[in-house]
Design brief:
The chain is about 45% helix and about 15% strand. It is α/β, with parallel strands linked by helices and about 375 residues long. It has 2 domains: about 5-120, P-loop containing nucleotide triphosphate hydrolases (Rossmann fold), CATH 3.40.50; about 130-380, no CATH class. α7 (about 135-145) crosses α13 and α15 (about 275-295) packs parallel to α17.
């Protein structure tokens, strides 16, 4: 099993806070990671574990072990009890690790009951920085990063992804409050897959589904909360050019995207007209995921002017304002470099990173042409 880079951040926060919430999509590896940190584990979706927790609560509060509470949102009454235990000894850290699939109920209870007492970490499926070099980036790109979704056993893709999306549509999303019938949710998944990498247009999507655009945007919020999709807002610099105002939409896991679009293998993927958008979204999620593993705060955008100048990812973080462009080619051209620099000058970017599939990186003081591994290395150095 690959080592999860977020482990270090979780341990650091447990050393400073009484409780830590480890959030992220279902089946991303939260339980496996948590069990490496403590054997005192309760799955609150199981009534037997709820009973055990209730009976053992006083001993747990007085003990020194880290208590792991999985799917904490299904037992709302646990949050006031955690608050009470924490408030009895505010100086004691590392007492509770809460796992959740980012349902609205979990976040509401966390914010109401544990504000100031809890730190939050996000675990997503495997990223390139975690899988080493035994598996290629193309394997991760095709099948996505879910541990059971094919990155460990390729025969599990795409059946696992299709089953995962079915369970979300039929069980989890309705339980979290999504007011859509499962068949409508599945249609919505397909529609969003077709829109991957495009400017979001709720009116067009709502017309295709026979819903109002308000309803479509409401549904989309649930998918964001479940870590299924990413909305990348436009970057507005203080320039005179007219700018795009709507966000771009991406599926966060490329394996789910490709399963929805019926892509069985790498050869089929590379023959698709939208393959560039798939690769762009995958690269964006690799970069943002890498920053999350090290606890880096950031704001992420895209930039596009009405006269055609664009930047795929504008990243504002501790190192400044960086501009990333992604090209699915092994031979970047001088024209690619020139267009990126012109667009980056418009927003006064501190660094310009052209990420392709090149094997021959070129670097300057403010510019780097490299592949995705080289881009991640520059980002985290």
């Amino acid at each position: 099993m690959f080592k999860r880079l977020l482990t270090r951040q979780i341990k650091e926060k447990l050393s400073r806070f009484p409780a830590v919430a480890l959030l992220g999509p279902r089946q991303s590896g939260k339980t496996t990671l948590a069990k490496t940190l403590s054997s005192t584990y309760f799955d609150l979706e199981q009534q037997t574990d709820q009973l055990k927790l209730d009976l053992q609560w006083d001993n747990l509060v007085q003990g020194t072990d880290l208590t792991v509470l999985d799917e904490a949102q299904v037992m709302p009454g646990i949050f006031p009890k955690i608050r009470g235990a924490v408030d009895q000894n505010r100086k004691r850290s590392g007492r509770f690790l809460l796992l959740g699939s980012v349902s609205p109920a979990l976040m509401r209870n966390v914010s109401e009951s544990l504000a100031g007492r809890l730190a939050i970490c996000e675990l997503q499926p495997f990223i390139l920085s975690e899988i080493g070099k035994k598996r290629t980036g193309d394997e991760l790109w095709l099948r996505g990063g879910f541990p059971d979704g094919g990155i460990l056993k390729k025969k599990d893709y795409p059946d696992w992804e299709n089953d995962y999306l079915t369970l979300l549509a039929e069980r989890d999303l309705p339980a979290w409050g999504l007011p859509a019938k499962p068949q409508m949710t599945k249609r919505f998944f397909k529609m969003l897959a077709a829109y991957h990498g495009q400017i979001w247009n709720a009116s067009t999507v709502s017309g295709s589904l026979g819903l109002s655009y308000h309803t479509v945007n409401h549904y989309l919020e649930y998918l964001q909360n479940a870590y299924l999709v990413l909305l990348l807002p436009p970057y507005h610099a203080n320039i005179r050019k007219r700018l795009i105002k709507s966000p771009k939409i991406f599926w966060r896991d490329s394996g789910l995207l490709h399963a929805l679009l019926n892509i069985p293998d790498r050869e089929t993927l590379l023959s698709q007209p939208w393959v560039g958008a798939s690769w762009e979204g995958w690269c964006i999620n690799q970069i943002l995921g890498a920053l999350k593993t090290v606890g880096e705060n950031y704001d992420a955008y895209f930039f596009r002017s009405s006269d055609g100048y664009e930047i795929d990812l504008v990243l504002k973080f501790s190192k400044g304002l960086w501009a990333f462009e992604f090209k699915l080619t092994g031979s970047p051209t001088l024209e690619d470099v020139k267009r990126l620099n012109v667009a980056a000058d418009l927003i006064r970017a501190d660094q310009r990173i052209l990420i392709t599939r090149t094997s021959y990186p070129e670097a300057g003081a403010k510019f780097l042409s490299t592949n995705i591994r080289g881009g991640l290395k520059r980002l985290l150095s």
